[in-house]
Specification:
Helix content: 25-40%
Strand content: 15-25%
Distance between the termini: 38 Å
Order of helices and strands: EEEHEEHEHEHHEEEEHEEEHHH
Radius of gyration: 22 Å
Number of helices: 9
Strand order of the largest sheet: 1-2-3-6-4-5-7
C-alpha cells in the first residue's frame, strides 16, 4: 500500500451517478455507472469501445447481504457490455448485474493479451475475498494472458491501480480480507508479540484474539477458536458468512471448535464477535483487554487523549 491521489469526475455532479476516476499521472481510466446508464456512457465516452477490462457488480440473491462480482475482458468493452445487456437467458445472461466498472488505458496501448492477463489477475484476487461470489464459469489458467517480462511488469501496475480505483469508487471486491494460511499448531505454540494492541474474546466454546488493522478493520487472528453451535439470535448475514468461511477454508472444524486457519478482517467489532460466538453480539463490550477494559473503554480513552496500555491484551461472554 502506498499513498495515492485520485481524481474523480462526476458527469452529472451526482456522486452516485456516472463517475470517471483516475490516479494522478496515470494513463489508466476507470468509468463507473449503473447498468441502465450503459447507452449514455457509450455515447459520452467513445474510448469505452477500446480493449479493456470490466467488472459487473450485483447482489447475491441466494445469500442475504452477499455480493457478486464478474470480471471480463474484451477488445471492445462497450460492445461486449451491450451484448451482455441484451442477453436475458443463456451463458451471457447476467441477471445479478446492477453496477459496472470499466478500466481502459488512455494511451491506447492496451492489447487483447494485456487485458486477458489483467482479467486473470483480478479473478484470482477476487477469490481471496469470501464476502464476494464469482459467477465466472471459466477460471483463468496459469497461462492466461501470458506476457513478456516487461509487459507483465506494466500490467501488474495496471492491476494494482485497478484495485485502488475500484476501492475508491466504493467496492471492496478486491480487498483481501484473509491473511495467508499459517501453520496453526506452530502458531499456538509460540508467544504473541507484545508490540501490538490485542483484544481477547473468551467464553464457553470459543477463545479468540483480535488486533486492529492498519485500515481500521478488526482482524481476528489465525489460531482463534469460534463456537461451533449457533443461537437463534445470530444475524442471518453472520450465519451465511460462517458458512462461506467454512467453504473457503478460513474456518475449519477442529474438535469442539471452529478454528481460524488464517487472519480474517471484519468491518466492525460486533461482526467479529458474532462470528466467534455464533450469536448476536455487541463487540464493543465483548472484546476486552486483560485488565478488564472493553473495546469501548479503550476507544473512549483514545478520544480523551489519555492513552492506553498497548501491550498484549481478553473478552468474557456477557
Amino acid at each position: 500500500m502506498k499513498p495515492r491521489s485520485i481524481n474523480i469526475f462526476l458527469l452529472d455532479g451526482d456522486p452516485n451517478g456516472i463517475r470517471v476516476a483516475q490516479i494522478s499521472m496515470s494513463t489508466i481510466q476507470s468509468i463507473a455507472f449503473r447498468r441502465n446508464q450503459l447507452r449514455r456512457v457509450r455515447d459520452a465516452f467513445p474510448e469505452i469501445e477500446r480493449p479493456g477490462v470490466y467488472i459487473l457488480i450485483g447482489s447475491d440473491e441466494q445469500e442475504s447481504g452477499g455480493h457478486v462480482g464478474y470480471v471480463g475482458e474484451s477488445e471492445g468493452v462497450g460492445a461486449r457490455l451491450g451484448h451482455h445487456n441484451s442477453n436475458e437467458t443463456g451463458r451471457d445472461a447476467k441477471g445479478f448485474w446492477t453496477d459496472t466498472v470499466v478500466l481502459i488505458s488512455k494511451d491506447e496501448n492496451l492489447t487483447k493479451s494485456h487485458a486477458r492477463y489483467v482479467e486473470a489477475c483480478l479473478i484470482r484476487s477476487l477469490s481471496h475475498n469470501p464476502r464476494w461470489s464469482i459467477p465466472n464459469n471459466k477460471r483463468p489458467s496459469e497461462d492466461a494472458g501470458k506476457l513478456p517480462l516487461q509487459d507483465r511488469a506494466a500490467m501488474d501496475e495496471f492491476v494494482d491501480q485497478t484495485k485502488t480505483l475500484v476501492g475508491a469508487l466504493g467496492w471492496d471486491i478486491f480487498r483481501e480480507v484473509r491473511g495467508r494460511p499459517v501453520d496453526v499448531a506452530r502458531l499456538l505454540s509460540e508467544e504473541r508479540s507484545g508490540d501490538e494492541l490485542q483484544f481477547f474474546c473468551r467464553g464457553e466454546g470459543f477463545a479468540a484474539e483480535m488486533r486492529l488493522g492498519a485500515s481500521g478493520d478488526y482482524v481476528v487472528q489465525a489460531g482463534s477458536k469460534a463456537r461451533t453451535r449457533t443461537t437463534p439470535t445470530i444475524p442471518r448475514g453472520t450465519s451465511a458468512l460462517r458458512s462461506a468461511l467454512l467453504e473457503a477454508g478460513v474456518l475449519r472444524i477442529d474438535g469442539q471448535f471452529l478454528l481460524f486457519t488464517s487472519d480474517y478482517s471484519f468491518t466492525s467489532a460486533s461482526a467479529a464477535a458474532a462470528t466467534v460466538t455464533g450469536a448476536s453480539a455487541n463487540g464493543r463490550i465483548l472484546w476486552k483487554l486483560p485488565d478488564g477494559r472493553t473495546y469501548a473503554d479503550w476507544e473512549a480513552s483514545q478520544e480523551n487523549g489519555s492513552g492506553a496500555d498497548e501491550n498484549s491484551t481478553g473478552c468474557q461472554e456477557a
